[in-house]
Amino acid sequence: DTGVSQDPRHKITKRGQNVTFRCDPISEHNRLYWYRQTLGQGPEFLTYFQNEAQLEKSRLLSDRFSAERPKGSFSTLEIQRTEQGDSAMYLCASSGALNYGYTFGSGTRLTVV
Amino acid sequence: KQEVTQIPAALSVPEGENLVLNCSFTDSAIYNLQWFRQDPGKGLTSLLLIQSSQREQTSGRLNASLDKSSGRSTLYIAASQPGDSATYLCAASGGNEKLTFGTGTRLTIIP
């Protein structure tokens, strides 16, 4: 297993367009997380899945954001009607259990112009 | 609400020196404390995980300690190298499945 994979690595989009990111977790991990990181800040929690169930969403996740994890495998994060404030690094992580720590992917850097 | 603080925000040291990075957290009811490294424009690489029942973890030139009672963790780097230059982030994990991160310490090792 090669770790957590995220696609694309970079995305430049015009304001108002929709974008979708994909995350493939470590195959045996049942927990999957999305975080957002802006320049000079630590990552902030967005949402988390246990298997296919989305168990928690941050207040940072406005109605324009939606995440799915069909069949408890890969996950997608969609942002509709992007705004310049959405420009950030979107990080995905997975974990096998609460005490086992988290493995992060390389992230998707979104730039909204 | 958990808050994590890392001081200093930036640190420059000559190559070969030993150094300590500091992390403090407000809620001692944590499951674990994890240290990460982040290179510019890249994702996070896990360095060390200390579970709440442990006091320290070691990997090569890195040693991380955890003192839950005082809300502190330190990352010790021995014999620093230019390749150690990066931003180091600590994150506390509570029972709510969320990681709370500090804002990081940007480390520069001067050759």
The H/E string of chain A reads EEEEEEEEEEE
- Biggest protein-protein interface? A-B, 27 and 26 residues
Question: How would you classify the quaternary structure?
Answer: heterodimer
Helix and strand composition category of chain A: mainly beta
Shape of chain B: globular
Main sheet makeup of chain A: 7 strands, mixed
How far from one another are the termini of chain A?
A: 36 Å
Helix content of chain B: under 10%
Name the features.
heterodimer; A: 113 residues; mainly beta; seven-stranded mixed sheet; four-stranded antiparallel sheet; 11 strands; B: 111 residues; six-stranded mixed sheet; five-stranded antiparallel sheet; 58% strand; globular
What would you note in describing this structure?
The complex is a heterodimer of chains A (113) and B (111). Chain A is built from no helices and 11 strands. Chain A is mainly beta and 113 residues long. In chain A, a hairpin with a 6-residue loop joins strand 7 and strand 8. Chain A is globular. Helices cover 0% and strands 58% of the residues of chain B. Chain B contains no helices and 11 strands. In chain B, strands 2, 4, 5, 9, 10 and 11 form a 6-stranded mixed sheet that branches. In chain B, strands 1-3-8-7-6 form a 5-stranded antiparallel sheet, with no helix packed on it. In chain B, strand 9 and strand 10 form a beta hairpin. The termini of chain B are far apart. At the A-B interface, strand 4, strand 5, strand 9 and strand 10 of A face strand 4, strand 5, strand 9 and strand 10 of B.
